[in-house]
Amino acid sequence: MADKIPFPVQSEDRPPPVPSTQSKVEMQQLVLPRDADVAGHQLLSGQLLKWIDIAGCLSAERYCDMPCVTVSMDGVYFDHVPYVGNVVVIKAQVTRAFETSMEVLVRVFCEERGSQVCRSVCKAFLTFIARPKGLTKTKIKLPYTIPAQEDRTEYFLAKERRANRLKGRTEIKNRVNCGAGNVATILEGKANLAHSVADSKAKAIFTDMTQVSSIELVLPQHGNHHQSVTFGGQIMEWMFTACSIAAGRCLPGVAYIQAIDTVRFLRESNVGDRVHIHAQVNRSFNDRVEVGCRVEARKIGEKSPRHINTSFLILACHDKESEAMQVLPNPINKDDVRRYEEALVRYHLRLERLTYLKTNVSTGLTTAPKWSKAVAEHLIMSNYERVTFWRLHSDWQKLSEKDGVILSKYQSGNEVCLRVEMEVPTPAPAAFEKICNVPDRPQWDKLCKAGKVEETFTDADRVVHLQYVPLPRPDHEGKDRDFVLLMSTRTPHTAEDAYSVCFRSIDHPAIPPVDGIERGLMVSSGYVIESLPGNEERCKLTYVHQLGGAALAYMAGDLMGISTLVLHLAVSLGKFLIQ
User: Fold this and answer.
1) 186-195: long-range contacts (C-beta < 8 A, 24 or more apart)?
2) Cβ(42)–Cβ(83) under 8 Å?
3) Segment 450-466, tens digit of pLDDT
4) How many other C-beta atoms lie within 10 A of the C-beta of residue 539?
C-alpha cells in the first residue's frame, strides 16, 4: 500500500493543514493528600477529570492556536485508581479535526515512585471547538489534520466515533423501544412490595430517594484561562461530587468512578452564574450503580435556567464483596421508569464493549458475536475498526507479485491476515457500488451460490446471508457452507478518506444454522477502494482477510492453498469491475 494518503490541499475558507504531532501534550501530576478522596488514600475522581480536561484543552489549543472549550467526553473506562504519592502522567493529542470541531485522545498512566511500574489508568475521547474571546456564537473552521504514520488508525476511526456521537439519545431510545419491554408494567406489580422493602431493613430503595440537588456560584477562579466561560473541568468536578453523594445512598463505603458513559456540554455557563446540579441513581448493578446528572445555569434576572450539561457516570464500591442496595424506579414517575430502562441498555453496551476489549478476538476466535440491536453500534464500530487497522498496518510480508497484483501476509503469533492490492480501470464510486450489491456477488465470487440482504439496520449497515459451495480442498467433507455477516459500508468524508466495505461474522437469532450446511466464520475482511490522484477513471482496490477458527488450522498445513483462494477472490472481483 502507498505510504502517502492524498490529503486535501489548503482551501480558502480553512487555515493551512496541521500535523497531528504538533498537538502533543504531556502533563505529570503528583497526587498530594489534598487531591485524595474522603478516605484519604486514592485520587479523587473529580480532580482526575479536571486534569484530563486541562490536558485535552491544551492539546486542542496547540493544534488550532485559538482558545477552545469542551463539547463532550465519552467512552471512559477506568482500569486503575492512582493513590496518594503516585505520579499521574497524562498524554493528549488531536486525532482528527473536522470542519468546526476536533477530537482529542487523552491517555492517563500512573507511576509508582521508586519503581519502574507504570499502569494504564484510562483512555478518553474529548471533543473541543474553537471559541475566540467575544465570538461566542461564531463557528470557527479548523485546519485539516495530517496524521503521522502511527496516528493514521485513530485518524480514520475518528470519523466513525463522531458519527456515533451525533446519533445522541435518539439511538438509546430506539433500543429501549426495540428490546427493553414494558418495564413499567412489571414494576407496577412490585410497587407495594418495594415500598415495604424500602421501609424495612432489606437492601432496596426507590430511585427518587437518591436524588441530590446542589447549587454553586461560579466565581472568577472557576472560569477558564481565556475568558469568563466556566472551566469545563470545574463543572465535571462538581458533577462528580453530586454523583458521589447520590451513589453513597445505596453503596456501602466510599464510591469511586468506574466509567463515564457520556458527558455532553450543550451550552456554556459564565462567571456569575448560579449552577444547579441534579444527580440521581438510575439503576443498580450488583456492586455498582449508574448515576445520571443534569446541570443547569441561571443568571440573575433570568426566568428559567439553561440546560448546560448531561452526563452518566458509573460508580462502584471499593469493597468488591459488597453489593449496592437494589434501586427501583417509582412506577408512578414515567421519567424514573424511562431512565431505569435506558440505564439497562447502556449497561449492556458497556458490558459488550468490555467483553470485546478483554477478549483477543484476533486469535483463536471460534464463535461469532451474538447480534442484537442493543449492541449493534459496537459491532459496527469494531467491524470498521479491524479493517481500518489492517489497511494501515505497515509490517506486511510480500508473498507474490504478478501482473500488478500484490499478495502480502502479516503474521504475529496466531494472528494472521492476508492482503491483495491491485489497480482497476474503474472509477472508485462505481467499484464501490458493485461490491455493495450483495445479490450480484455470485457473478464475481465463483464459490458463492447466492447472496441476500436479511436485515437493514441503517442505510450503511446490513445483515447479509451468503451461501457457498464446498471448499476445494482434500480434507473437506463436501458440505455446502454459508456465512451470516454484518456488512458495513462507508463513503469518503473528505478527499483523504476511502470507500470501505467491511464484513464480520455474527450470530443472528433469525438465521440459525441448517443441518447439512456448514456455518462458516469470518473474523474480519473488507475492501478498501481509493481513487488514484489525477485519474478518476482508475482506482486502487485493496482486499484484507483476517483468518480465524478452522481457517487458521487449515493455513498451518497449506499456506499457499488458502492464500490462493483469497487471491483468486480479489482477482475475480477485479475482472468483474473491468467488465
Assistant:
1) 187/328, 187/329, 187/331, 187/337, 187/340, 188/331, 190/328, 191/331, 194/328
2) yes
3) 999 999 988 889 999 99
4) 25
